[in-house]
Design brief:
With 150 residues, this protein is of the alpha+beta class. 38% of the residues lie in helices and 20% in strands. The protein has 5 helices and 4 strands. A hairpin with a 6-residue loop joins strand 2 and strand 3.
């Protein structure tokens, strides 16, 4: 695998901004021929640098506009406990991101639900029933002035 160069960086930035940009328009922005640009995009896809393409969804329109960042502490730091917790979070549709982090807590979750009542259900009936969990801290998102998620 070759190193990422300035052309690849521009391609990646443009595709992050608009994954549906035509190859002709992308090539023009990058300053390459269409065929050279297409080869680079295909190589970035094949080597796993570009993992997928996604749509940016208006969460309010889908009934998932209430976002909560949750930090979670586990009782023990055993691999088995982490795996069981991660399986439970994989199964919970409210969890759109789950990160194993360093610091005071073991995990940070991004929860997207309809409203406070839906979050309370998740907090009590899903997260609150996972036996490995000992601490939960909820941070309610007031606004997201910068959000680069696809």
């Amino acid at each position: 695998m070759r190193d990422i160069d300035k052309f690849d960086e521009i391609i990646l930035r443009e595709l992050e901004h608009d994954g549906r940009i035509s190859n002709v328009d992308l090539a023009q922005k990058v300053g390459l021929s269409s065929s050279a640009c297409l080869r680079r995009v295909q190589e970035l896809e094949n080597n796993g640098t570009i993992k997928s393409y996604r749509a940016v969804i208006d969460r309010d329109r889908t009934g998932r506009g209430f976002t909560v960042i949750v930090t979670v502490g586990l009782a023990r730091h055993l691999k088995k406990d982490q795996q069981e917790f991660e399986r439970a979070m994989q199964a919970a549709p409210q969890v759109v991101e789950c990160h194993n982090i360093s610091g005071e807590f073991e995990y940070m979750l991004r929860i997207e639900v309809r409203d406070l009542a839906a979050y309370k259900y998740f907090h009590t009936e899903i997260l609150g029933t996972v036996p490995q969990v000992t601490r939960i801290t909820s941070h309610f998102v007031m606004a997201s002035p910068k959000d680069m998620r696809g």
